[in-house]
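For practice. Any example?
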Amino acid sequence: MTPDLTRLDILTIALVAGIVIAATLSFWPLLGVLILSSSLAVVVLPLQRRLRAKMNEELAAAVTTALVLVALVSTVFFTVSVIYSNIDYLSEIVSLIVGWIRAAYADFIYSEMAIPPDLVTDWINDQIGRFSEYFGTIIRSLPFLIVQFIVFFLSLFMFVLRGDAIRTEFVGLLPDRIVSAIERMSVMVVDTLYAIYVVHIATSVLTFLLALPFFYFLGFDHVVFYSLMAALFQLVPILGPSFLMIFLAIYALSMGDMRSLALLVVIGYPVVCAFPDIYLRPLMMGMRASIHPVLMWIGFFGGLAVMGLVGFILGPLFVALVVSGYHIIIDELKGARDDVSGEGGEGGGTAP
């Protein structure tokens, strides 16, 4: 039996809780970074466990963190270099589309449904102003972004290093009757995080590989650029790739290229966008996650709408925990019903 807490124990717990609350409030702006690093640590812990068989624990954690750093920096560098090398080409595309829209609008202004030119000009200037303001905000927050980057990888190292130990210590202090429920929730959390990180990255890479031959045979210039854009847009479920195909369809329409427009509609969207997003992503999620892909999408979009970027991780995670909690309660209720039924059957057998 667990002994009663003395007054000193209660004061100690209150003191520790107060320190934790104060630290959380003080580091609140970095809370999202810590959540992202801890969730990623859960996914890369299997790699650290394998490395521990060949080296000491700290070195294994450092190597695991370094591999994540190299992968992330390499991906960002490759993405930025491709976009930067094609920035002039992208500007030409945008200019061509804008010119086509202006020409179409010039024919439209003589109709009775014409929109006042001043209204269109004000709207364009407003959008340019908003973009400039957003870009300026990013530049001003660059020092804090660097701090977040450093904190992310330092905390990732610590979570990878101490993750298994923290889990073992925490579970060891719990009553036996709830350990099984915690274990089931832990499995659900790991599977969900795997589906979030690994499946999204795998889907994006597959989209890149599918886009390369499509844009090559389509006859588009800058094949790698378009394929990379398709892969980046694929990171946003359902909506992302559609935006790219709509943009390319408008570009083909502005050039009067009906062949490319038809190929984008008939082959491009089904193969490059719909197949990885609607078929492969749910299939790979279903191989690991135990909840329906639609619930995962609800978590993605709901989390992004409510919590921002962190919600992309926490949204599906909360949905998975709710589903796991539901199944645990159902199993508990079924077990209680079976126990009651068993007791009733035994009692009925002894009655005169």
